[in-house]
Design brief:
This protein has 481 residues and is of the alpha/beta class. The protein is 41% helix and 13% strand. It contains 17 helices and 14 strands. The longest helix is centred in the middle third of the chain and has 24 residues. The radius of gyration is 24 Å and the shape is globular. Bound molecules: zinc ion.
Length: 481
């Protein structure tokens, strides 16, 4: 008995001795934080159901690469004023560990205290820092890692703070107010160049960047809407993808002696879901997954020192797999018939038609061939109710522009989007068995996945402010906020 006990004590002692080096295990030196904007479980699972439906009739899913990471958790996203956060307060939560008001970036709800971000902490430790986004680089999520402003729409101030950040790599879309609100201020790319950034535009030049380039601001020159990259399904061959920008970031930061922190945002998942366009959400989620694959390839070479965390900032659209009209069935192969995003359909079909057709001569029949090409929908396949809804939406599109505040019913029907186009994606999504409840964000939790050094911190149910604390722990940062 005694002998057993002493053996047990010795074993405990051994465990304690072993615990010392375990506690001093190398900190995460190469840290990736991937944020799918507007990406919660429905966005992830719809992409996985779609990916399977492309090659199989089986009821199965083809998991995304990031959803196979070994540790997963659920993350609550409410902010200081609402269960439904926006990207600014959600970004602030993840970047600084603080809840604030919607619309505020890295300041307290009183808009006087400024918070220090995890990216600034990383920089202070001598790490290199990269910020990548598929939307404009001054948008709320990327800005949450380098800027502090009372309003997320202070785009010029955000751009000035980007130039002054000293961070090593910015990649993705452009600026929303490159010369200020009135266009009378110094060009932001010039400010960045003065601050020592090499400003590089266009895929060819961006992909040619090599380590030792110094501080880089890389902007795709083929942009779509609001200075953002194209929806991935619309991306021209000559335009860099989110994965391309991630790979360039790894090339530029990958050999930093003290490591790096890189935030990569898939920003257009959110924009697609605001517009209730499932095909664009799915394709951008797959493009986001491809960007995570770049980090996984880097991790294969630095397995012990890399940490990859993938999360969302909130859900958008109230997306669901399941719709009243299809009950327990889904037909995701129908989503594949959509060949362009709602945005491209607006730009290339609706707008030219509106410009050309006189209101009293406009006829839905004129657009049917383009509708079939873009969404795979034929009038004869629609129910009488859907046909009526489509005609009604067409009339609204060809009539006066719907003003959100002025027409509550119009907002419920079309969310401030082009009525014809949003009705087309809704009809197609409903036929596939995908439902939507909102044109804004919702308050359901998001999923977080992790792999690598410190991965064990990311299991369970926790708040988005804890992402900051968990990253600090993994990176050996003394929490200051
Ligand atoms: Zn967001």
């Amino acid at each position: 008995m005694m002998r057993k006990l002493s053996r047990a004590i010795a074993a405990l002692g051994l465990a304690a001795a072993l615990a010392v080096p375990a506690a001093a295990a190398p900190k995460a030196k190469y840290v990736f934080l991937f944020i799918g904007d507007g990406m919660a479980l429905a966005q992830i699972n719809s992409a996985a159901v779609y990916a399977n439906a492309m090659s199989s009739k089986e009821i199965a899913i083809k998991p995304l690469g990031f959803s196979k990471l070994p540790v997963s958790g659920l993350t609550t996203t409410h902010d200081a004023s609402s269960f439904i956060t926006d990207s600014a307060s959600a970004g602030t939560a993840m970047a600084t560990g603080n809840k604030t008001l919607s619309g505020v970036i890295n300041m307290d709800p009183g808009k006087t205290v400024k918070y220090r971000t995890i990216a600034e902490e990383a920089k202070a430790l001598g790490m290199k820092v990269g910020i990548v986004s598929s939307v404009s680089i001054d948008h709320a999520t990327p800005a949450s890692f380098y800027a502090k402003v009372p309003s997320r729409s202070d785009y010029y101030a955000i751009g000035e703070q980007l130039a002054a950040s000293g961070f090593d790599y910015f990649g993705g879309g452009g600026f929303l107010q490159p010369k200020g609100k009135k266009g009378d201020q110094a060009e932001l790319t010039e400010l960045a160049a003065k601050a020592g950034y090499k400003v590089v535009a266009g895929k060819e030049r961006i992909m040619a960047l090599r380590k030792g380039s110094g501080k880089v601001l890389a902007v795709e020159s083929l942009l779509q809407d609001a200075s953002a990259l194209h929806y991935d399904m619309d991306r021209p061959a000559g335009a860099a993808s989110l994965a391309d920008f991630t790979r360039v970031g790894i090339e530029l930061l990958g050999d930093a002696p003290k490591g790096f922190f890189m935030m990569v945002e898939g920003g257009k998942i959110d924009w697609a879901c605001h517009a209730n366009d499932a095909a664009s959400s799915i394709k951008d989620t797959l493009a986001f997954d491809a960007a995570v694959s770049e980090a996984l390839a880097f991790m294969a070479k630095h397995p012990k020192e890399t940490l990859i965390v993938v999360t969302g900032d909130h859900e958008t659209g109230g997306m669901s797999i399941g719709f009243a009209g299809t009950q327990y069935s889904t037909f995701f192969d129908k989503v594949a018939k959509q060949t362009m995003s709602f945005q491209r359909f607006n730009d290339e079909v609706v707008k030219p038609y509106k410009d050309k057709a006189k209101k009293d001569e406009a006829d839905l029949a004129d657009l049917l061939p383009a509708i079939k090409a873009a969404f795979g929908l034929e009038l004869g396949d629609l129910t009488p109710l859907q046909q009526n809804e489509l005609q009604f939406a067409f009339n609204r599109t060809m009539g006066n522009q719907v003003v959100r505040a002025a027409a509550e019913d119009a907002y419920l029907l079309y969310g401030g989007y082009e009525p014809l186009t949003v009705k087309l994606t809704q009809i197609l999504n409903q036929a596939a068995g995908i439902g939507w409840t909102s044109y804004a964000h919702t308050g359901v939790p998001v999923a977080t996945f992790a792999k690598g050094s410190g991965q064990e911190l990311f299991g369970g149910l926790y708040d988005n402010t804890d992402i900051y604390r968990k990253l600090c722990s993994a990176m050996g940062i003394q929490k200051k906020n």
